[in-house]
Amino acid sequence: MSEQGVLREHALMWSGPRVDRLRKLDQGSAGLVDRLLQVARTGLPGMQRPDGTMCFTRRFSAARVVAEPEGCSLRYTAITVLGARHLDTAGQRALLGGRTVGEVCDVLVDRLSSTNSVGDAALAVWATAACGHQGLERALDRLDVLDSGPGPRYIVDLAWAVSGLVAARSVVDVERRLDRVRARLVDSLVGTRRLFGHVSEGDLTSRYRQHVGCFGDQVYPIQALARLHASADDPVALAAAERCAERLCQLQGPAGQWWWHYDARTGGVIEGYPVYTVHQHAMGPMALFALAEAGGQVDLDAIRRGLGWLVAPSEVSDVLILDRPGLTVRKVDRRDPGKLVRGLRATAAKVRPGTRLSALDRLWPPTAVHRECRPYELGWLLDCWLGGSYRSGPGVARDLRNH
User: Fold this and answer.
1) Which residues on neighbouring strands pair with residue 124, listed in sequence order?
2) Do 132 and 95 belong to one domain?
3) Could you say which DSSP state residue 154 is in?
4) What DSSP designation does 315 have?
5) How many domains does the chain have?
6) Do 109 and 205 fall within a single domain?
7) Is residue 66 part of a domain?
8) What is the pLDDT of residues 185-219, one digit of tens each?
9) Looking at residues 306-331, what average pLDDT do you find?
10) How many angstroms separate the CA atoms of 158 and 161, rounded?
11) 225 and 132 within one domain
């Protein structure tokens, strides 16, 4: 049997959380998810480098001619591990060039000294903890080095650190680390704000962007805070996640689009495009499911709406899912030069909150399709739909099945 045949046979043997999550969908959406899982199983093997790490991206043409993998990414390697860990050994080897997730973790931990990214180290902690890998302590040490001292942090990095430390807390004592990172993340949702900005404090971005938070700045904290509450009751974290998720769902586009840039001060949309396919099929669902499974109040129908956009995007007629060679179009965007629309709208909203500059929609409509696919997009897809986190014992607010 071919590697792809082995992968199909063994990956589909998974049961448990994936089944429960699919039951929350209508038949058409569930069928689409199964199709997307096969896309991931087909496409990821071609994204691995000979040394075991994952590439940065693969580009392809309208004629589906796929270029060679480009670059190398430790964070994409860790995210792929988080997805592949749900497969059995044969499935992992078919997906990861003959390696298991443990063997890829060996490579990941060995390479951590080459990165200065807090996010890379946080994801390595998460991946090694989730896989029960012996490199967890080394990953924690690297995170300690990179995340030491005061100063601003990127919200996504803080969220990944919380999720990683939550995964590690049942294995090693990380409570002091976790308390510190949790406080930074929760405190970033200041006052009555419902959405996160891009940084925790201070200035890591230009002045015109200090009020802007992207979609990732919302969903990764929702996921992290929900996981935190699920691992040990934390009603403050749960309430923050619920507040953010509720607002995101209220702002979802008419065709199910998860928009890109938000005003963290007002809780409104600054600029909707690009719309990324990974937000629709993985990142949005995994955040909302994590919140629901932690006992939060969630609009799970937003997941169905988001999936629907993938097969019927209102902006373009292009096919966004390529069953062969197993890739998804990265995003639908405007054709504006130098991200002009985003810049103008961010600046206008900085001066006068709520300003939209609606003429920009007519000048640069969202008709551009970016034909590339990155490994993390398919890694999160696997982790979202093959994974799940369930609470047990006292304090369970609500069983997911009773939502």
Assistant:
1) none
2) yes
3) B
4) S
5) 2
6) no
7) no
8) 999 998 789 999 999 876 666 566 778 999 999 99
9) 97
10) 5
11) no
Residues 141 and 285 in one domain: no
Name which of 221, 204, 360, 365 is nearest 296 in CA terms. 221
Instruction: Indicate the residue type of 154.
Output: Y
- DSSP letter string over 95-113? HTTT--HHHHHHHHHHHGG
Q: What end-to-end distance do the CA atoms of the chain give, in Å?
A: 42
CA-CA distance, 186 to 104, in Å (whole number)? Answer: 32
Mean pLDDT of the chain: 91
Measuring CA to CA, how many Å separate 389 from each of 235, 308, 349, 371? 17, 25, 38, 33
Q: What angle do the packed helices 118-131 and 101-111 form, to 10 degrees?
A: 150
Examine the domain organization and report whether 138 and 238 are in the same domain: no
> With a threshold of 0.85, does the pTM exceed it?
yes
Burial profile 357-380: b = 16 or more Cβ within 10 angstroms, e = fewer? eeebeeebebebbebbbbbbbbbb
12-16, 69-73, 292-296: least confident range = 12-16
Contact between 16 and 386 (Cβ < 8 Å)? no
In terms of Cα–Cα distance, which of 228, 246, 248, 245 is closest to 237? 228
In whole angstroms, give the CA distance from residue 75 to residue 87: 20
How far is C-alpha 31 from the chain's CA centre? 21
CB burial of residue 59 (10 Å; 0-12, 13-18, 19+): middle
Q: Is residue 158 part of a domain?
A: no
Are 134 and 13 in a shared domain? Answer: yes
Q: Is residue 110 part of a domain?
A: yes
Is residue 397 assigned to a domain? no
Asked if residue 29 lies in contact with residue 308, where contact means CB atoms within 8 angstroms, the answer is yes
Q: Which domain holds residue 260?
A: 164-315+331-370
Residue 293 has a CB neighbour count (10 Å cut-off) of 23
